[in-house]
Amino acid sequence: MKASTVAIGAILAAAGGFAIGQLSGPGGGAAPDVAPTPVVEEGGPDPAKQYRVIVGRSPQRGEEGALVTIVAFVDYAIDGPAKTQSVLDRIAKRYGSKVRLIYKQNPDANHPGAMGAAEAVLAAAAQDKFWEMHQRLLRDRSKLSQPELDAHAKAIGLDFEKFRTAIDTHENARIVQSDMRAASRVGVRGSSHLFVNGYPISGGATEEALRRLVDREIPNATRTLSTGVPADRLYSTLLRNALREIGDTGPDTDRGTPPRPQVVEDPTAVYKVPIEGAPVHGPAAALVTIVEFTDFQ
């Protein structure tokens, strides 16, 4: 991302926060149900629309039934996530249990160390040390070589043998790829992108702009809970009418057509794939079997 784009985005995001402030009125009361105005990059998600960003088993801070879920897409090889995290830290402190933070990986293969860092932080998460690894990676984006990632793992007390096995076998590569596809579907480019109950905000979001959006969502989530929705289903309920991807126009309300059934890719799922009669290359007793579906056209 060019420096000029970031600078312009930051100015526009601040202006967006002011605009929302005028709508919410003095005293920080509940704002009318209008679309948030933080600006995103050209070609990115429309800030006036809500997108269905699936949480899955992504690392999180906060309770599952929090009123507001903020999803952050992270690339550890650039400066943006560290700046965004400082804002998120203040938001988490201010709102406490009302907010939870979800972290998804969106490394750019052109950024040295980005892919390795994404796999490393998920390997740490598997040992309940996501936050410790996350903080160390944000502290210095120049220290993402494998020896430096190994040093981070040892410093936070990971079972190093398990960590290296996960890295060497790319145990978490499919989760990284799933997160990247999710990012692409909703128009995320690069990093420093946040989704607040499905509403996007990026371009160097200011704390004020983010607070305005969180304050807008809390009353809506509270009303939803009051209808009897279980806390652990609140987020999915809030996103029930959200768009699935850029370009999605939602259900065809004129014809009464119900929304398309949601297809959620679970990167941890295991599927039974029959191989009887298929061409095979390699021994039948191999420890790992890779099944490829091919269309030669």
Q: What do you see in this structure?
A:
It is a single chain. It is built from nine helices and five strands, in the order αββαβαααααββαα. The protein is an alpha+beta fold. It has one domain: Glutaredoxin (3-Layer(aba) Sandwich), CATH 3.40.30.10. The protein has a five-stranded mixed sheet with strand order 1-3-2-4-5. The longest helix has 22 residues.
Short structural summary:
The chain is α+β, with helices and mostly antiparallel strands and 297 residues long. The chain has helices at residues 3-24, 80-95, 114-125, 130-139, 146-155, 160-168, 173-185, 207-226, 234-238; strands at residues 60-61, 68-74, 99-105, 193-196, 199-201. Helices cover 39% and strands 8% of the residues.
List keywords for this structure.
single chain, 9 helices, alpha+beta, 39% helix, globular, 5-stranded mixed beta sheet, Glutaredoxin, disordered N terminus, 297 residues
CATH homologous superfamily classification: Glutaredoxin
CATH architecture: 3-Layer(aba) Sandwich
* Relative helix content: 25-40%
**SSE arrangement, N to C:** HEEHEHHHHHEEHH
Instruction: Return the structural class.
Output: alpha+beta
Strand content: 5-15%
Ends apart, CA distance between termini: 36 Å
Query: Which fold name is given in CATH as the topology?
Result: Glutaredoxin
Major sheet summary line:
5 strands, mixed
The parts where pLDDT drops under 50 for at least 5 residues are 1-41, 252-264
- How many beta-strand segments? 5
Rg is 21 Å
